[in-house]
Amino acid sequence: MAFALLDQIRSIFDGDPGVRKVADDPVLSAELLMLFRMILADGTVSESEMVAFRRICREAFGIPESSIDSVIEYLNEFGYETNGSQAIAEFRDLDIERRKLLARHMAEIAKADSQLAETEVRLLRRTLDLLDISPVDVVKPEE
């Protein structure tokens, strides 16, 4: 209980730890922006897409559930300053496995609502081209 209170007090003075994690890591910020763009690609935000986004934030990036709403708010503010090409540029020099992970996360978001819109397919295809990744690498299970 005392630790939770200390964490809340520290959060007030230091900012949200999840937001700090995202803000301090340009690649993580870029990936989350691309995932958010995938959520918005079909023009609607479905609950299943948000569930997938939240799960990816927690499991793949260690962002606490309590921080995710603040991270989304940060991305909304930061996203106006960054376009998709700028976000993708953060990934071009990373190793192929890290680039494949971005593509897999994007595909997971796109499929979350059980409907693949043409706009989602185009965004994913363009991202794969820019990252020099084959579509086979996105559907291939991780080893």
Automatic annotation (TrEMBL):
Species: Mesorhizobium sanjuanii
Pfam families linked: TerB
Signal sequence interval, chain numbering: none
Annotated protein name in UniProt: Co-chaperone DjlA N-terminal domain-containing protein
The Co-chaperone DjlA N-terminal domain, residue ranges: 33-138
